[in-house]
Amino acid sequence: MRGSFRRLFMSVAALAVFFIFTLSDLSVVRADETVLSDQAAELLFTQEWASGDSIIQSVCATDDYIITIENTAKKEIAPDIVTAYYKNDTDAAGNPVEKYSVAMQVQDQDWEHGNCMTYNPNTGYVYVALYTNFNSDLRGCIHVMDPSNLSLIGTQKVTDDFNLLSIAYDEKNNVYYGQADGDGSYSIFVMDTDFHIIEDLGPADPTPGYNFQGFCKSGDYLVQSPLTVNLGVGNYMMAYYIPERSFVDVVGFDYNREGATKIEPEQIAPMGDGSFVTVVNNSYNDEYGCGDIYRVVFPHLSAVTEITPEVTPEPVTPVPTIDEEVRITTEREQMTSVETEASEETEQQENNTPPGKPFNPVPVIVIIVIAAGAVIGIRMFRIRLERQRRARDARAKRRRKMLMEELEREIDELDI
User: Fold this and answer.
1) Residues forming beta bridges with residue 182, ordered by sequence position
2) Fewer Cβ neighbours under 10 Å: the N or C end of the chain?
3) Buried b / exposed e across 339-362, counting CB within 10 Å, b at 16+?
4) Residue 67 in this model has a pLDDT that exceeds 60
5) Which helix H or strand E contains 69, and what residues bound it?
6) In degrees to the nearest 10, what's the CA dihedral of 253, 205, 357, 341?
7) Residue 370 belongs to what domain range?
8) pLDDT tens, residue by residue, 2-14
9) Model's pTM, two decimal places?
10) 34 belongs to a structural domain
11) How far, in Å, CA of 329 to CA of 183, rounded?
12) Tens digits of residue pLDDT in 130-165
């Protein structure tokens, strides 16, 4: 009996181990180490720099516009140039426009370095990671932009410990991803909608560069370029896999203009159709430069329609005006979006799971297996006790029978 119970226990234990290893492989999604391979790019338009001191630092795409921030003075406070290009062949009101032509342009606000920005379709706003703080009050802050008129509408403090190098909105989980500058070891972290840091994913290594450009989020990946200017190693794009908290793929990202003395890819941002928009700056002996704005496809990262062959359009002449009717229509749509923001945010939070932590059924299966083993063990223990009780009863019955038989013999002997 003891041997049978031991064999049953060993079988249950072996079954538990089998479930642990098998279901672990099924439940954990492994990183795709070639997620950025087979990239393709289409040149959308070119933005000439305002001067040799300018450089386009960031880019993002809203429903209606592709927006760029041109930092006009990299080492001092000065108004920067913010430009919105039509993303579609119709404007927000449905009127036909020239795709990728200038919709509006403003230069009335310093956006510090303006290193990275992200669009939140639920709020209708663009959030800008400043990276620098020539204004000491702006350390660890982000600026909030209204994309309908490119104005600064607010500033949000995140931390006093470092400046934010990058910011990306995760629409699925309704959170923001941020990245610290060198003071914070380039750590990547998660923020809630009030920009409180709720999870720290740890430091990030910029190799093969020495710093990072702005990033964006796509699925379980953060995509960005390392800063490699003057290293002589070329340019790259990197994919950071959030569940594993590490970079899993690095590919060459060289889209060079002939004659350019310095090439520097800047931020990459989602276009909303599975493709991405990025800007690559080209300078000529630091006296003249331009930013080429590309649409990029990574087929293994997201499925989108093929892009057309690369063409080189004429540089777009900035026009600092916007149709009044379009502005009013856009603001009316934004007011409607703001009114529904609270209910949409509540619904999303109810359906959220923690970012970067997919549901893992292994603990549940292990508990079920252990519980089943415990039930079987208790049942076998009870059966064993019942059999021992029956054996004791049988032995007692036999003893009583033997005593009765002996008593009867003694009675018979006395009768004689």
Assistant:
1) none
2) C
3) eebeeeeeebeeeeeebbeeeeeb
4) yes
5) strand 65-71
6) -70
7) 2-27+360-415
8) 555 555 556 555 5
9) 0.70
10) no
11) 43
12) 999 999 999 999 999 999 999 999 999 999 999 999
